[in-house]
Amino acid sequence: MFENKRYMTRGFQQEISLELQLTIFQLIDELKIKSKMDYLQVFELSKEGYIQVLEHRMEEPEYKKIYRFAFTRPVTAKVFVIDDGDHTTVMLAEEY
């Protein structure tokens, strides 16, 4: 799971900075080494001043972890990362 080609929607590419995109992919890559992963990864992004709050969760197995990073342009968004077996798609929740 999450070992195949990755595709990003236009909204994700435009709304989420490259630095934050890479952070999301890094968190997925680190988690897939440590544990079994659900086909759907959810990232809830919020901001506290210049702090980017990133809540990463999945349902099966149940997982939730919150990260805080200093970012120059923190954003508020919900991101879905979906692996259908052939490819991985990253999109904003409103693009689903």
From TrEMBL:
Pfam family, one: DUF960
Protein name: DUF960 domain-containing protein
